[in-house]
Amino acid sequence: KEALAAASASGSVDEDASTLKVFMAPEFLLRGPRGAYSMKVLLGDKSKAGLFAELSALVRGDVWKNWLIVFGTIVGYIDLPDGGVFPCYNCACAQLGGWNTEEERDSGSVAIMKTFKSGIDFLQKPEDIL
Asked: How far from 109 is each of 56, 60, 80, 112, CA to CA, in Å?
């Protein structure tokens, strides 16, 4: 949040409405407590908004018009009931700023999954960081 505020307040930002401003956070900026987030935490459910919605809310409103925000990459996983191997996803999440309705938010957001994952994308012993 602070990095977004600093970027928008920077004197070097071109204020011209015809200029697309791009804020790009680094890869792996957002890692869950064990190296990844469950997809339920990322996507939310009927009772609670997910992390994607919370990130999008940071750039709601006219002050963010003409901005494209890439929130870095987020690693997510799906729990399988048998406790075996579970699929993981490494996604870059982007949102056009300046949205004011859910329809505008949805039409201006995208999550792009990394096609080729590397072993270094994931923690080898996540329990060591707890």
From this structure: 8, 12, 27, 10
Q: What is the DSSP string of 67-96?
A: EEEEEEEEEEE---TT-S---EEEEEEEEE
Contact assessment for residue 17 and residue 62, using Cβ atoms and an 8 Å cutoff:
no
Three-point CA angle 35, 40, 42, nearest 5°:
60
Q: Write the single-letter amino acid at 5.
A: A
Overall average pLDDT of the 2-7 stretch: 92
User: Residues of 104-128 as b/e, b for ≥16 C-beta within 10 angstroms?
Assistant: ebeebbebeeeeeeeeebbeeeeee
Q: What is the pTM of this model?
A: 0.78
Query: Which residues, listed in sequence order, are joined to residue 49 by a DSSP beta bridge?
Result: 44
pLDDT cut 90: percent of the chain above it: 41
- pLDDT tens digits along 57-104: 999 999 999 999 999 888 887 877 666 666 777 888 899 999 999 999
